[in-house]
Amino acid sequence: MPYRLFLGTILLIFILQACKSPEKIVAPASNELRPAKNIILLIGDGMGLPQISAALYSNNNKLNLEQFSIIGFHKPYSSSDLITDSAAGATAFACGVKTYNGSIGMTQDTVPCTTILEELESRGYATGLIASSTIVHATPASFIAHQPLRVFYEAIAADILNVDVDLLIGGGKRYFERREDDERDLYEELRQKGYIVSDYYKEELKDINPTTKRPFVYFTADKHPLTHAAGRDYLPGATSFAISFLERRSDQGFFLMVEGSQIDWGGHSNDGGLLVEEAIDFDQVVGEALRYAKRDGETLVLVTGDHESGGLAINPGSQMNKLQLAFTTNGHTAAMVPVFAYGPSAELFSGIYENTEVHNKMKLALGIHDETTSSSK
Ligand code: MG
Ligand code: ZN
After folding, report:
1. How many Cβ atoms are within 10 Å of 298's Cβ, its own excluded?
2. From ligand 1's centre to the CA of 223, what distance in Å?
3. Nearest ligand (C-alpha, residue 87)
Protein backbone atom coordinates (compact mmCIF):
# COMPACT_ATOMS: atom_id res chain seq x y z
CA MET A 1 0.00 0.00 0.00
CA PRO A 2 1.45 3.38 -1.02
CA TYR A 3 0.11 4.92 2.20
CA ARG A 4 1.96 2.35 4.33
CA LEU A 5 5.09 2.85 2.25
CA PHE A 6 4.78 6.57 2.81
CA LEU A 7 4.45 6.10 6.58
CA GLY A 8 7.35 3.67 6.55
CA THR A 9 9.54 6.13 4.69
CA ILE A 10 8.67 8.91 7.12
CA LEU A 11 9.46 6.60 10.03
CA LEU A 12 12.79 5.58 8.44
CA ILE A 13 13.78 9.23 7.93
CA PHE A 14 12.81 9.93 11.51
CA ILE A 15 14.92 7.04 12.82
CA LEU A 16 17.91 8.03 10.68
CA GLN A 17 17.67 11.59 11.99
CA ALA A 18 17.49 10.35 15.56
CA CYS A 19 20.51 8.07 15.05
CA LYS A 20 22.72 10.83 13.72
CA SER A 21 25.33 11.60 16.32
CA PRO A 22 24.07 14.57 18.28
CA GLU A 23 25.64 17.80 17.21
CA LYS A 24 27.38 19.58 20.01
CA ILE A 25 25.87 22.96 20.61
CA VAL A 26 28.89 25.19 20.43
CA ALA A 27 29.06 28.17 22.73
CA PRO A 28 29.75 31.39 20.85
CA ALA A 29 33.43 32.16 20.42
CA SER A 30 34.74 34.33 23.20
CA ASN A 31 35.23 37.31 20.89
CA GLU A 32 31.47 37.37 20.35
CA LEU A 33 30.90 37.59 24.09
CA ARG A 34 31.16 40.74 26.10
CA PRO A 35 34.23 40.33 28.30
CA ALA A 36 33.95 40.67 32.06
CA LYS A 37 36.01 43.23 33.97
CA ASN A 38 35.70 41.56 37.37
CA ILE A 39 35.12 38.01 38.60
CA ILE A 40 33.54 37.05 41.90
CA LEU A 41 33.97 33.28 42.37
CA LEU A 42 31.84 31.88 45.20
CA ILE A 43 32.69 28.33 46.29
CA GLY A 44 30.44 26.44 48.66
CA ASP A 45 32.69 23.68 49.97
CA GLY A 46 30.76 20.42 49.80
CA MET A 47 27.81 22.18 48.19
CA GLY A 48 26.23 19.86 45.66
CA LEU A 49 22.65 19.80 44.42
CA PRO A 50 21.29 18.06 47.57
CA GLN A 51 22.81 20.76 49.81
CA ILE A 52 21.33 23.51 47.64
CA SER A 53 17.95 21.74 47.64
CA ALA A 54 18.02 21.25 51.40
CA ALA A 55 18.85 24.94 51.94
CA LEU A 56 16.07 25.97 49.55
CA TYR A 57 13.41 23.78 51.19
CA SER A 58 14.56 24.85 54.65
CA ASN A 59 14.34 28.53 53.73
CA ASN A 60 10.67 28.87 52.72
CA ASN A 61 11.48 27.72 49.17
CA LYS A 62 13.57 30.79 48.43
CA LEU A 63 17.26 31.30 47.64
CA ASN A 64 19.25 34.06 45.94
CA LEU A 65 20.62 31.27 43.73
CA GLU A 66 17.25 31.24 41.93
CA GLN A 67 18.18 34.55 40.29
CA PHE A 68 20.64 32.77 37.97
CA SER A 69 19.46 31.71 34.53
CA ILE A 70 22.73 30.25 33.22
CA ILE A 71 23.58 26.98 34.92
CA GLY A 72 26.02 24.20 34.07
CA PHE A 73 27.59 21.19 35.75
CA HIS A 74 31.23 20.36 36.37
CA LYS A 75 32.77 16.93 36.81
CA PRO A 76 34.67 17.17 40.08
CA TYR A 77 36.94 14.08 40.03
CA SER A 78 40.68 14.53 40.64
CA SER A 79 43.69 12.91 38.94
CA SER A 80 44.14 10.43 41.80
CA ASP A 81 40.54 9.66 42.76
CA LEU A 82 37.05 9.66 41.31
CA ILE A 83 36.15 11.35 44.58
CA THR A 84 38.06 14.59 44.93
CA ASP A 85 39.12 16.39 48.06
CA SER A 86 38.92 20.16 48.46
CA ALA A 87 42.61 20.73 47.67
CA ALA A 88 42.50 19.05 44.25
CA GLY A 89 39.05 20.55 43.66
CA ALA A 90 40.19 24.12 44.32
CA THR A 91 43.46 23.63 42.42
CA ALA A 92 41.39 22.61 39.38
CA PHE A 93 39.52 25.94 39.59
CA ALA A 94 42.66 27.92 40.42
CA CYS A 95 45.12 26.44 37.90
CA GLY A 96 43.03 24.50 35.39
CA VAL A 97 44.79 21.20 36.12
CA LYS A 98 43.55 17.90 37.50
CA THR A 99 45.83 16.98 40.36
CA TYR A 100 46.00 14.50 43.24
CA ASN A 101 43.96 14.78 46.41
CA GLY A 102 45.82 16.92 48.93
CA SER A 103 47.72 19.05 46.40
CA ILE A 104 47.71 22.80 47.00
CA GLY A 105 48.38 24.68 43.76
CA MET A 106 50.55 21.93 42.32
CA THR A 107 50.24 19.63 39.31
CA GLN A 108 50.08 15.87 39.78
CA ASP A 109 53.89 15.89 39.39
CA THR A 110 54.19 18.36 42.29
CA VAL A 111 55.16 21.24 40.01
CA PRO A 112 53.72 24.59 41.18
CA CYS A 113 51.03 25.83 38.80
CA THR A 114 50.21 29.50 38.27
CA THR A 115 46.85 30.24 39.85
CA ILE A 116 44.29 32.61 38.37
CA LEU A 117 44.79 34.88 41.37
CA GLU A 118 48.55 35.04 40.75
CA GLU A 119 48.10 35.55 37.02
CA LEU A 120 45.56 38.35 37.48
CA GLU A 121 47.65 39.95 40.22
CA SER A 122 50.59 40.10 37.79
CA ARG A 123 48.30 41.65 35.17
CA GLY A 124 47.36 44.49 37.49
CA TYR A 125 44.03 43.25 38.83
CA ALA A 126 43.13 43.65 42.49
CA THR A 127 42.74 40.23 44.14
CA GLY A 128 41.16 38.91 47.30
CA LEU A 129 40.31 35.75 49.23
CA ILE A 130 37.69 35.29 51.94
CA ALA A 131 36.85 32.09 53.83
CA SER A 132 34.80 30.96 56.80
CA SER A 133 37.65 28.53 57.65
CA THR A 134 41.30 29.43 58.20
CA ILE A 135 42.74 31.30 55.23
CA VAL A 136 45.41 28.54 54.94
CA HIS A 137 42.78 25.78 54.56
CA ALA A 138 42.68 23.83 51.28
CA THR A 139 40.20 25.91 49.29
CA PRO A 140 41.60 29.43 49.73
CA ALA A 141 45.18 28.08 49.93
CA SER A 142 44.97 26.52 46.47
CA PHE A 143 44.55 30.00 44.93
CA ILE A 144 47.70 31.46 46.48
CA ALA A 145 50.05 28.72 47.75
CA HIS A 146 52.02 25.79 46.34
CA GLN A 147 52.51 22.87 48.69
CA PRO A 148 52.52 19.11 48.07
CA LEU A 149 50.14 18.51 51.00
CA ARG A 150 47.24 20.51 52.34
CA VAL A 151 48.21 20.03 55.99
CA PHE A 152 51.37 22.17 55.67
CA TYR A 153 49.49 25.15 57.10
CA GLU A 154 52.53 27.15 58.22
CA ALA A 155 54.26 26.65 54.85
CA ILE A 156 51.04 27.78 53.13
CA ALA A 157 51.00 30.91 55.32
CA ALA A 158 54.60 31.62 54.30
CA ASP A 159 53.69 31.17 50.62
CA ILE A 160 51.04 33.87 50.98
CA LEU A 161 53.82 36.38 51.70
CA ASN A 162 55.20 35.69 48.21
CA VAL A 163 52.07 36.98 46.46
CA ASP A 164 50.93 40.60 46.37
CA VAL A 165 47.33 39.71 47.16
CA ASP A 166 45.26 42.80 48.01
CA LEU A 167 42.82 41.42 50.57
CA LEU A 168 42.56 38.39 52.85
CA ILE A 169 39.76 37.76 55.36
CA GLY A 170 39.58 34.49 57.27
CA GLY A 171 40.77 32.54 60.29
CA GLY A 172 44.19 31.08 61.05
CA LYS A 173 46.05 33.91 62.80
CA ARG A 174 48.17 31.40 64.72
CA TYR A 175 49.81 30.06 61.53
CA PHE A 176 51.18 33.55 60.90
CA GLU A 177 51.90 34.79 64.39
CA ARG A 178 52.75 31.82 66.60
CA ARG A 179 54.52 29.37 64.34
CA GLU A 180 56.11 26.09 65.36
CA ASP A 181 58.19 25.38 62.21
CA ASP A 182 60.25 28.55 62.40
CA GLU A 183 60.71 31.81 64.31
CA ARG A 184 59.10 34.04 61.69
CA ASP A 185 56.30 36.40 62.67
CA LEU A 186 54.33 36.64 59.44
CA TYR A 187 51.79 38.98 61.04
CA GLU A 188 54.62 41.49 61.48
CA GLU A 189 56.09 40.64 58.06
CA LEU A 190 52.74 41.43 56.43
CA ARG A 191 52.84 44.84 58.14
CA GLN A 192 56.40 45.45 56.95
CA LYS A 193 55.27 44.56 53.46
CA GLY A 194 52.77 47.41 53.62
CA TYR A 195 49.60 45.60 54.67
CA ILE A 196 47.07 46.94 57.12
CA VAL A 197 46.70 43.91 59.39
CA SER A 198 44.04 43.50 62.02
CA ASP A 199 42.05 40.79 63.73
CA TYR A 200 38.93 40.03 65.72
CA TYR A 201 40.78 40.46 69.04
CA LYS A 202 41.37 44.12 68.24
CA GLU A 203 38.28 45.26 66.37
CA GLU A 204 35.24 44.10 64.46
CA LEU A 205 35.55 44.00 60.70
CA LYS A 206 32.42 46.10 60.32
CA ASP A 207 34.02 48.90 62.36
CA ILE A 208 37.05 49.17 60.06
CA ASN A 209 37.22 51.55 57.13
CA PRO A 210 40.76 51.03 55.82
CA THR A 211 42.39 53.18 53.19
CA THR A 212 42.49 51.42 49.83
CA LYS A 213 46.02 52.77 49.33
CA ARG A 214 47.33 49.74 51.22
CA PRO A 215 46.43 46.05 50.99
CA PHE A 216 44.41 44.61 53.85
CA VAL A 217 44.44 41.43 55.95
CA TYR A 218 41.92 40.65 58.68
CA PHE A 219 42.02 37.48 60.78
CA THR A 220 38.58 36.40 61.93
CA ALA A 221 39.84 33.71 64.33
CA ASP A 222 43.01 32.23 65.77
CA LYS A 223 42.22 28.91 64.10
CA HIS A 224 38.88 28.10 62.46
CA PRO A 225 36.08 30.65 62.84
CA LEU A 226 32.89 29.64 64.63
CA THR A 227 29.94 28.06 62.90
CA HIS A 228 27.19 30.45 61.87
CA ALA A 229 24.98 28.90 64.54
CA ALA A 230 27.59 29.70 67.21
CA GLY A 231 27.72 33.36 66.19
CA ARG A 232 29.94 33.76 63.10
CA ASP A 233 28.25 36.37 60.98
CA TYR A 234 30.95 38.07 58.91
CA LEU A 235 30.82 36.26 55.57
CA PRO A 236 28.14 38.32 53.71
CA GLY A 237 29.41 41.62 55.17
CA ALA A 238 33.03 40.75 54.39
CA THR A 239 32.00 40.07 50.81
CA SER A 240 30.42 43.50 50.25
CA PHE A 241 33.36 45.08 52.13
CA ALA A 242 35.83 43.26 49.86
CA ILE A 243 33.99 44.22 46.68
CA SER A 244 34.04 47.94 47.46
CA PHE A 245 37.67 47.68 48.65
CA LEU A 246 38.91 45.80 45.57
CA GLU A 247 37.04 47.89 43.01
CA ARG A 248 38.87 50.95 44.34
CA ARG A 249 42.25 49.16 44.40
CA SER A 250 42.60 48.81 40.62
CA ASP A 251 41.11 50.28 37.45
CA GLN A 252 42.00 47.05 35.64
CA GLY A 253 39.39 44.98 37.49
CA PHE A 254 39.32 42.55 40.39
CA PHE A 255 39.18 38.86 41.24
CA LEU A 256 37.53 37.83 44.50
CA MET A 257 37.06 34.28 45.75
CA VAL A 258 34.73 33.74 48.71
CA GLU A 259 34.38 30.31 50.27
CA GLY A 260 31.48 29.04 52.35
CA SER A 261 33.89 26.63 54.04
CA GLN A 262 31.71 24.92 56.60
CA ILE A 263 28.90 23.56 54.43
CA ASP A 264 31.33 20.68 53.91
CA TRP A 265 31.75 20.14 57.63
CA GLY A 266 28.01 19.58 57.99
CA GLY A 267 28.40 16.80 55.42
CA HIS A 268 31.39 15.24 57.20
CA SER A 269 29.61 15.23 60.55
CA ASN A 270 26.30 14.17 58.96
CA ASP A 271 24.80 17.20 60.63
CA GLY A 272 21.93 18.37 58.43
CA GLY A 273 21.21 21.39 60.60
CA LEU A 274 24.79 22.62 60.28
CA LEU A 275 25.00 22.21 56.52
CA VAL A 276 21.62 23.86 55.93
CA GLU A 277 22.48 26.84 58.14
CA GLU A 278 25.90 27.22 56.49
CA ALA A 279 24.40 26.95 52.99
CA ILE A 280 21.77 29.59 53.77
CA ASP A 281 24.48 31.91 55.13
CA PHE A 282 26.46 31.31 51.94
CA ASP A 283 23.38 32.19 49.91
CA GLN A 284 23.48 35.62 51.61
CA VAL A 285 26.97 35.98 50.12
CA VAL A 286 25.47 35.13 46.73
CA GLY A 287 22.89 37.88 47.30
CA GLU A 288 25.62 40.46 48.07
CA ALA A 289 27.59 39.53 44.94
CA LEU A 290 24.54 39.66 42.69
CA ARG A 291 23.40 42.98 44.11
CA TYR A 292 26.76 44.48 43.15
CA ALA A 293 26.98 42.74 39.75
CA LYS A 294 23.52 43.92 38.70
CA ARG A 295 24.42 47.48 39.51
CA ASP A 296 27.94 47.30 38.06
CA GLY A 297 27.23 45.46 34.81
CA GLU A 298 30.87 44.43 34.28
CA THR A 299 31.16 41.68 36.85
CA LEU A 300 30.87 37.95 36.27
CA VAL A 301 29.51 36.13 39.33
CA LEU A 302 30.09 32.37 39.55
CA VAL A 303 28.71 30.10 42.24
CA THR A 304 29.73 26.47 42.52
CA GLY A 305 30.93 23.79 44.91
CA ASP A 306 34.12 21.76 44.77
CA HIS A 307 32.23 18.49 45.38
CA GLU A 308 29.24 17.07 47.21
CA SER A 309 29.74 15.99 50.84
CA GLY A 310 27.94 13.34 52.82
CA GLY A 311 25.91 11.73 50.04
CA LEU A 312 23.01 13.80 51.28
CA ALA A 313 19.45 12.68 50.54
CA ILE A 314 16.16 14.44 51.26
CA ASN A 315 14.15 11.41 52.29
CA PRO A 316 10.45 10.53 52.08
CA GLY A 317 8.55 12.05 54.97
CA SER A 318 10.13 15.44 54.30
CA GLN A 319 7.93 18.53 54.21
CA MET A 320 8.71 22.12 53.28
CA ASN A 321 10.86 23.57 56.08
CA LYS A 322 10.85 20.19 57.82
CA LEU A 323 13.26 17.85 56.05
CA GLN A 324 14.20 14.27 56.75
CA LEU A 325 17.87 14.33 55.78
CA ALA A 326 20.01 11.21 55.47
CA PHE A 327 23.63 10.57 54.52
CA THR A 328 25.50 7.74 52.80
CA THR A 329 29.02 8.67 53.95
CA ASN A 330 31.01 10.98 56.20
CA GLY A 331 33.24 11.77 53.25
CA HIS A 332 32.75 13.31 49.82
CA THR A 333 30.94 11.89 46.78
CA ALA A 334 31.59 12.09 43.03
CA ALA A 335 28.29 13.62 41.88
CA MET A 336 28.53 16.43 39.34
CA VAL A 337 28.24 19.89 40.87
CA PRO A 338 26.18 22.81 39.52
CA VAL A 339 27.81 26.04 38.33
CA PHE A 340 25.70 29.21 38.34
CA ALA A 341 26.83 32.18 36.22
CA TYR A 342 25.62 35.78 35.97
CA GLY A 343 27.05 38.72 34.06
CA PRO A 344 29.25 39.29 30.98
CA SER A 345 30.30 35.99 29.31
CA ALA A 346 28.13 33.97 31.70
CA GLU A 347 26.97 31.95 28.66
CA LEU A 348 30.33 30.14 28.68
CA PHE A 349 29.31 28.28 31.81
CA SER A 350 26.25 26.41 30.54
CA GLY A 351 26.64 22.71 29.69
CA ILE A 352 28.62 19.86 31.23
CA TYR A 353 32.40 20.10 31.52
CA GLU A 354 35.45 19.20 33.62
CA ASN A 355 36.06 21.21 36.81
CA THR A 356 39.30 22.43 35.19
CA GLU A 357 37.17 24.19 32.56
CA VAL A 358 35.92 26.58 35.23
CA HIS A 359 39.46 27.98 35.24
CA ASN A 360 39.72 28.16 31.44
CA LYS A 361 36.28 29.73 31.10
CA MET A 362 37.10 32.39 33.69
CA LYS A 363 40.14 33.41 31.64
CA LEU A 364 38.09 33.37 28.44
CA ALA A 365 35.49 35.54 30.12
CA LEU A 366 38.18 38.08 31.00
CA GLY A 367 39.53 37.97 27.45
CA ILE A 368 42.79 36.28 28.46
CA HIS A 369 43.75 33.87 25.71
CA ASP A 370 47.12 32.36 26.55
CA GLU A 371 46.81 28.67 27.32
CA THR A 372 49.59 28.46 29.89
CA THR A 373 48.25 26.47 32.79
CA SER A 374 51.42 25.61 34.61
CA SER A 375 54.88 27.00 35.06
CA SER A 376 57.55 26.63 37.62
CA LYS A 377 57.83 29.52 40.01
MG1 MG B 1 37.29 24.30 51.86
ZN1 ZN C 1 35.42 17.88 52.96
Report:
1. 14
2. 14
3. 1
Exposure of 100 in the CB half-sphere (CA atoms within 13 A) = 11
Compute the distance from residue 98 Cα to the ligand 2 centre, in Å: 17
Q: Which residue has the higher pLDDT, 187 or 17?
A: 187
How is domain 37-365 classified at the CATH fold level? Alkaline Phosphatase, subunit A (3.40.720)
Looking at per-residue pLDDT, the higher value among 180 and 24 belongs to 180
Residue 33 pLDDT = 84
Q: How far away, in angstroms, is 69 Cα from ligand 2 center?
A: 28
For residue 309, the CA-to-ligand 2 centroid distance in Å is 6
Residues marked active site are found at 86
Contact assessment for residue 327 and residue 310, using Cβ atoms and an 8 Å cutoff: yes
Residue-wise pLDDT tens digits, 94-112 = 999 999 999 999 999 999 9
Q: What is the pLDDT of residue 376?
A: 39
258/282 Cα distance (integer angstroms): 9
Domain ranges of the chain: 37-365
Q: With the C-alpha atoms ordered 129, 130, 136, 139, is the resulting torsion angle positive or negative?
A: negative
Residues of the chain with pLDDT > 70, as a percent, come to 89
**Phi/psi of residue 28, each to 5°?**
-60, 145
